[in-house]
Amino acid sequence: MLTTPKEFVERFRAVVAARGWRGVSTPFDLIGGWEQLVDVVAEGYDDNIYEYRNDLSVRERIEVLLQDESLSGVEQMERVRTQVGEIDARFRSLLRPEPVRGNSPWWEAHLPAYAGAELVADIKAAYGVSIEERQ
Length: 135
Known about the structure:
Layout: H1 5-19, H2 27-43, H3 49-67, H4 75-92, E1 95-99, H5 106-109, E2 110-112, E3 114-115, H6 117-127, E4 132-133
Parallel strand pairs: 3-4
Antiparallel strand pairs: 1-2
Helix pairs in contact: 2-3, 2-4
């Protein structure tokens, strides 16, 4: 099913509106947020575990879009899938291989291999796992 870019954005906005998400106009807003988070994790995420989990919610929203039936088969979603796949691969390379949250999506189940002091301490307290501290 082919759609114009305008029709794609209209479908996307309908999905966003139905979920009550604010501050999201295009899929690329979410992709940009995901990419920014991955950049911060690559540098050594330096906030607490609650902020980290909150920041990961952008990937959950992306997953909702990737699974939404009204967007499946739309040509522009292939570009979205490709971009998300590239960012996902980069994020996976920053994570410890062992999951700590078994029934969670992979981006929540695995912890960063390193982080700033606050997240390192929170991860140790929450999961009993030691990760490398980087500043």
